[in-house]
Structures are given as C-alpha cells and as structure tokens.
Amino acid sequence: MKLINIQINAPENSPNTDGIHIERSTGVVISDTRISTGDDCISIGQGSDNIDIARVHCGPGHGMSIGSLGRYVDEGDVTRVHVRNMTFVGTMNGVRIKTWENSPTKSLAAHMLFENMVMKDVQNPIIIDQKYCPYYDCEHKHVSGVTLKDITFKNIKGTSSMPVAVLLRCGVPCQGVVLQDVDLKYMGEGGSSSKCENAMA
C-alpha cells in the first residue's frame, strides 16, 4: 500500500486522533505528507513489517510512534522500519518506541532506522519507553516482554523544549541501539542532556 501526498488535519486538543495507524501490514509506503493532529501523526502497531516513511511533516501532535506494543496476547513482531526526512514542529514527541510492562507474551521490535530528522521545539525528540503506562496507578514492577533490537537514530538535529532530549528507558536490555550525528539543543537555559537505562550498543 502506498500513501503519497496526503494532508491530514485534526484539532490539536482532539484525543485519540492518530493521523495514520499501521497494524498487521507489510510493505506500506508513506511519503510527501503533512499531518496535524491531537495524537500520533503516524503510529505503527504490532504485526508490521517492511514499512517505509519519507518526507513527512508532523505537527502539532504527539509525533511518530512505534507502539504501543506488548499489551495483548500473541502480538506480532514489528520489523524492518525505515523512517527518513521527517520534520517535527511543536510536537510532544519526535520518534518514540513504547512498550507495555508485564506483557502477556513475548515479541520482537527490530531492524529500525530513523534518519535525517529535523526537530523544532519538540518536548521529547528521541524516546524509548519500555515502561509505558498511561494510567496513574502503574507500579513499574515488571519488565516488558518486547525485545528491542538493532535500532539506529542517525542525523537527527534541532531543538528540544525539555532539557532531556534523548531518553532511552529500556526494560530488558535494548540490543544494538546506535545514535549517530545527533545534535539537539535545549531551548531554555543550560544545555540539553540524555538519560540511558539498559540500552546496549
């Protein structure tokens, strides 16, 4: 399936308005598209393989997400995702991978390349969150059943509206995580920083 030269608009304060959601799909191409929404501009769910995304403008919204993954029984793997030449303006996140804790079954999210990104005033430009839970009573006692492997963030530049521009919060160790040519500046006083938990090169 190819989605090319599309424009999607929803109010910034509209809940659960993902622009494009991909799930249980193979060979999807998205390019030359503008998305403004109240949730994820693009989200990729379980069971997806060989996804190619290029030249997408995102904002406002929650950014680009892999997941959430690992919430339900027998979820499929997410593999071979290539995202490039995206611009994020005023979004909550840039590129985010999110998996639930205490997954009922194990799965894999692997072989992903995110490259040539521009972030403009983005809260969380790069984030891996394996303790994802949108509720208030999460105890964070469990480890995600989703294994993250072979993930590269390359040539990502711009500005962050929060001091922590890169957050890698892995449960089971993330394997083969590479950050190359990342230059993200904090918009406020002081420099930007990164936080890393259980991420391995």
UniProtKB/TrEMBL annotation:
It comes from the Eukaryota. It is found in: Secreted, Cell wall. The active site is at H62. The keyword Coiled coil does not apply. One of its GO terms (molecular function) is polygalacturonase activity. Pfam families: Glyco_hydro_28. Keywords: Cell wall, Cell wall biogenesis/degradation, Glycosidase, Hydrolase, Secreted. SUPFAM superfamilies: Pectin lyase-like (SSF51126). Its main location: secreted. InterPro entries: Glyco_hydro_28, PbH1, Pectin_lyas_fold, Pectin_lyase_fold/virulence. Gene3D superfamilies: Single-stranded right-handed beta-helix, Pectin lyase-like (2.160.20.10). One of its GO terms (biological process) is carbohydrate metabolic process. Belongs to the glycosyl hydrolase 28 family. This is Exopolygalacturonase. It comes from Aegilops tauschii subsp. strangulata (Goatgrass). The lineage of its organism: Eukaryota, Viridiplantae, Streptophyta, Embryophyta, Tracheophyta.
